[in-house]
Amino acid sequence: MPTVAVKLYSVFFKFLLKHRLQNRIQTPTEESDSFGITSRPDESLASPNPSFTDGVATKDIHIDSNLSLSVRIFLPESALLNPEPNSKPKRKLEPKGRETTSSPRVNTRRNSYGPSVAPVKEEVRRNSVGGGDAEGLNLNLNLTSGGGYGGYGGYGGYSPTIDDRKRKLPVMVQFHGGGWVSGSNDSVANDYFCRRIAKLCDAVVVAVGYRLAPESRYPAAFEDGFKVLSWLGKQANLAECSKSLGIKKLDGGHRHIVDSFGASMVEPWLAAHGNLSRCVLLGVSCGANIANYVAQKAVETGKLLDPVKVVAQILMYPFFVGSVPTHSEIKLANSYFYDKAMCMLAWKLFLPEKEFSLDHPAANPLVPGHGPPLKQMPPTLTVVAEHDWMRDRAIAYSEELRKVNVDAPVLEYKDAVHEFATLDVLLRSPQAQVCAEDIAIWVKKYISLRGHEFSY
């Protein structure tokens, strides 16, 4: 059974969330601007940390001037290691006078999440939003030699050089949970989780701040998810143009040409360290619904997304539902954190009133006739919790994928509750670290440069 702390926090969480949902249902939402919002005023946010002081640097970017859509990039310090052919990255040397241990790699991974760091100044956060200017990108490749910790353009954080000598890490696009109406990509809980995933998976994590309901109902969040994937593709293409035109010292005329190609919009962290041909989608709760939709759209779009290639997706306790109740929906209807009655309120706030149905394609992925055939879906890892009423429907979706030969394992965690791995900053559950490690083991089959060097 869950611990006493989990039970107490669940009661408090459900009381607050139910109060918020009922208030929003009782207060009719005015016809709002499509710009939308991505976080609530009462959300506890973590400031970006651009300097690797805890092993992962983060940076916030507002990527659409017409929407509130934003991303937070999590860059692990391992990205600074230069690749060596036919060898594994060398371990970072400890300063003189400090003894190093020869403990196994597993122990290192289990202790991989370091202590939290002090928040950076607010002015740094404001300067971190946006792509920076052309001088910040520095097409002459003369920023900080070797990709060090220099400041540029008032940002004050890590500033990479755009060249081919840096490690190219896979990119994981993460969608947070919150029942469509709450949560944030830069919340304390989501920040903690994404840092852990970035370290264990050795990947650049792009956490998406999609628009929330009821200010922005379906399909706003789904569209935002695919816009981020399209934005990543543009980043790669613009970076390639910038590199090819700016590899030599440019005169004023050529500088103007490069700027017209969009050099000022290139995000150097992604251009220097992201390998978008190894892209993984990771969705949490309702974010898993978004991830699954984005995977479907990626299949339908095909080569038009190049060089972005979705090689796998991870669905963590997906927010699936349907008109015919499953065994877990009946037995665990009053489960921890998100009970079924509360989730129905969330769906009413998310779906347009005229389209409300528990078999809506956003709610039930097994409704026939929506999206591409299941056999075309990417490999899908599903994470479920024992005490979660949504468990059985997630398992059923995974079973349907396996029937058409898609690699779709299910990881079920005993004594775990909905959001157990992504609220670990509060719950401190022993299963959370194990779950993150299990995800890293499975996903490395698809993001490793040397193929299936990891087995599950």
The ordered string of helix (H) and strand (E) elements is: HEEHHHEHEHHHEHEHHEHEHH
What is the second-level CATH architecture? 3-Layer(aba) Sandwich
Strand order of the largest sheet: 1-2-4-3-5-6-7-8
The termini sit apart by 27 Å
| Strand coverage percent | 5-15%
Q: What's the multimeric state?
A: single chain
- Helix proportion: 25-40%
What would the average pLDDT be, to the nearest integer? 80
What is the overall number of helices?
A: 14
Spatial extent as radius of gyration: 22 Å
Class by alpha and beta content: alpha/beta
Which stretches are poorly predicted, pLDDT < 50 over at least 5 residues? 89-155, 247-262, 452-456
How many strands in all? 8
| CATH topology label | Rossmann fold
Family: Belongs to the 'GDXG' lipolytic enzyme family.
InterPro entries: AB_hydrolase_3, AB_hydrolase_fold, Carboxylest/Gibb_receptor
Pfam families: Abhydrolase_3
Protein name: Alpha/beta hydrolase fold-3 domain-containing protein
